[in-house]
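Reopening this ticket.

The earlier resolution said the output was attached, but the attachment link was broken on my side. Pasting everything inline this time so it's all in one place.
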Amino acid sequence: MATSSTSGQDSLPEFDGHPYLQRLVKLRQSFPALKGFVRKIQNTDAGRQLVEKYYRQEHNRVPGRCYGLQFNDDGVSLLEDYPDGFGSPQALREYLEHHPAEASREKNHRRLFILEDMEPSYVDTLGDHLGVDPLVFSEQMNTWNFSDSRSIPHRGLPSLTQPNQSFTLRYYEIRSLNDASSVDALTYQMTFAVNRRRYERWRDVDLPTFGNWEDSRHAFIRRCASFWTSQKPDSSSKALGWDGTC
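Inline output:
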């Protein structure tokens, strides 16, 4: 997927064949938040390799999924010919090549692409063809207090944010644990994804139980969901076309 330079400790992957990610590497000095993002998205540790192997062997695809929605005056529907989403980054790339963003917006189409996880090829395709602000992807992976408990997060500058055009929503997901000792200071459990999150002990909080079930310990995961739209903040007409990612 990519090759890495070995010239110094500050080296970063080159992302061969990924033009959008290649541009982010060049922009990292002007936008420091992108440096941590490109490092994490090209991470090749044992956990990442396990995720890649599972999805390829069990599902014959790369991690993550991408669906497209079309918003019309009479409702919302899945993109025609893609009722099960895009089976691969290549399928998404071919669709966007035949339905480019500029032509779609000129026809007042309103499309939303929903991306699960941060698989590099999906990120590159959406970013390159739709012109997604790269700081949106960076916020999704590096959001303060939600990256993981051992990383130094890097937020974008408030002066660069446009909440009416893009934002990141942060929330906690609660997980019940059958084994109370499965998440403690000596273990390191994470979600099964490219953009992995660490399971944390939900300390000193008793959640209500149902029926006669015994109390069980709980853990939480820091989750993020980001949104970006190509529609300009000052657009006054709802008929204007736009593309969005979520």
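Reporter confirms the inline version is readable. Residues 46-58 form the longest helix (13 residues). The two ends are 24 Å apart (CA to CA).
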